[in-house]
Amino acid sequence: MKTIGFIGLGTMGLPMAANLLKKGFGVFVWNRTASKADELVPLGARKAESPAHAAREADVVVTMLSDDATVLDVYEGEDGVLAGLRAGTAVFDSSTVSPDTSRRLHAACRERGASFIDAPVTGSKPAAESGTLLFMAGGDRSVLEANEDVLLAMGRRIVYMGESGAGSYAKLAHNTIVGINAIGLIEGMSIAAKAGIDARSFLEVVQSGGAASKQADLKGLKIIERDFSNQFSGKLMLKDLRLAVQLIGELGVTAPMLDLARAQFERGVQAGWGDEDLCALVRWYEDQMDMVIGEDRR
């Protein structure tokens, strides 16, 4: 089987790498905080000394990192991925970054005889753990098809979006909808709570009606049960919405709802909730209402 160099063992990356190991792939792992790899070693992972080392050992490199600056540093820095990349290697970046960054790395990999695919995912931590992520991919379709086995060890579906950068465009458009939907869910639950409606009963209505959404399924009970453990953090949501705002400026698209959602997540991060799940933003609404959604007010 192919050997994978997996770089970035955060909330999403660690379970993704674990699924590769469980499917029998040999995996070299690297993370800035090296101890993150410790729980993968019993599954058969081997620790790489650097991103260059992971790339040098790999047939396929997969990166899952937090933002553009981190991605560029891990690829272009001393002992970065590009320094160890061999001709013929396929590189998949599942980070959410700007299309410009994806195209820049595509060109850099091509210069070294390697192939780069931007392959961000939809599905938060639970989907990463269950191996049910969806990959949206931009780049050479033949390279994607030749390595479907790697991606499908971590996910359930791959959607080809087009040339290099198309996956990143799709992910930012997708996360625009996620951010707006999350705000809509929180605001609707706030209205119902302030009106004295039982939160669990209202959530049942939402999930069964025209307001049904993945956000309602993933975040509704978390809000009611005050579970702000991180599936997808508020600061990463804000990062993606900022990238999307930059993108609409370049494309000439008018998106007032996007800017409103970005402003709300700015408030959440400024309040200190950025490392918690994005649904922790409900606290801002609860502060305005002077009540907690789901509390017994009888």
Automatic annotation (TrEMBL):
Its EC number is 1.1.-.-. It is an enzyme of class 1 (oxidoreductase). Residues 3-162 form the 6-phosphogluconate dehydrogenase NADP-binding domain. One of its GO terms (molecular function) is oxidoreductase activity. It holds the Pfam family NAD_binding_2. Residues 165-285 form the 3-hydroxyisobutyrate dehydrogenase-like NAD-binding domain. Gene3D superfamilies: N-(1-d-carboxylethyl)-l-norvaline Dehydrogenase, domain 2, NAD(P)-binding Rossmann-like Domain. InterPro entries: 3-OH-isobutyrate_DH-rel_CS (IPR002204), 6-PGluconate_DH-like_C_sf (IPR008927), 6PGD_dom2 (IPR013328), 6PGDH_NADP-bd (IPR006115), HIBADH-like_NADP-bd (IPR029154), HIBADH-related (IPR015815), NAD(P)-bd_dom_sf (IPR036291). Keywords: NAD, Oxidoreductase. Belongs to the HIBADH-related family. This is NAD(P)-dependent oxidoreductase. It comes from Paenibacillus thermoaerophilus.
